[in-house]
Each structure stands twice: as C-alpha cells, then as structure tokens.
Amino acid sequence: MNNQILVATILMAVAGAMVAAQAPINAALGRGIGSPIGAATVSFGVGFAILLVATFLIGEGASLARIGQVPALLLIGGALGAVYVFAALWSVPILGVVTTASLMIFGQMGAALLLDHLGAFGAAQHAINPMRVLAAALVGAGVVLSRW
C-alpha cells in the first residue's frame, strides 16, 4: 500500500469516527436547546465559520468569488449535508448510534454504487459488479444485526 492510500485510509477512518460522534453530539445539542432543527442550524453555522476562516487562512478566499461560475446544481451539496445532519441527530435517540450510523453507511453504499457506475459529477467510472453489490448487502445485513 503506498503512502497516499494509507493516509487516505486513515483519514477516512478518523472522519468516519467523527461522523459517528457528530450525530449524538448534535442530538444532545438539540435536547439542550429544545429544537432538532435549531441544533442542525447551529452545527452548520459552526462548521461554516470554521471553514470560512480556514479558507482565508490558507489563502483561498478569492475562490469564493467564483461561485457564480459553477452550475447551480453543484450548490446542492450543502442542502444534502443539512438533511443528513438533521436526520442523524433526530434518529439517534430513536435508533441508537450504531443503527443510525449503519443506515447512513448503507444509504451511502447504495448511492455510491450508482454514482460510481454513472461516473457522476466527474468521478471515475466503476461498474456495478457482484462483489460491490455484496459489499452493500453486507452493510445492509449489519443494519439488521445492529437493530434486531
């Protein structure tokens, strides 16, 4: 395994752990302020502030001026993230962290199979094949085992 693959693997494992922690933290925030949607708003606000500062600190602030040059469809990512944050913080108290995270990963796997197959948004194309479907199915089995 080359260094770039190793770093990406470790980075994504750490990011996955952070996503798992994000949902119960945001759920607790929602209980604390009495509003799940308010908690999602605060979560996104904090994230936005940190990313805005980081963008300017690394000298890429001028890139924000080019936002009008990209297709409007590409701006939907923030909306998709907002749905995820709200869904996760709302679901954790009902399903638990493991089931919520498992369902999130299962949904990601299904969508990823299709997006890879299509080469959507400029991603490299990877055909749907039995092994990739089996990987998603095993995550689905994990969802079942985590809950029932």
UniProtKB/TrEMBL annotation:
Pfam family, one: DMT_YdcZ
InterPro entries: YdcZ (IPR006750)
Keywords of the record: Membrane, Signal, Transmembrane, Transmembrane helix
Residues annotated as signal peptide: 1-23
Transmembrane spans: 37-58, 70-88, 127-145
PANTHER family the record matches: INNER MEMBRANE PROTEIN YDCZ (PTHR34821:SF2)
Protein name as it appears in the record: DMT family transporter
Biological source species: Roseovarius aquimarinus
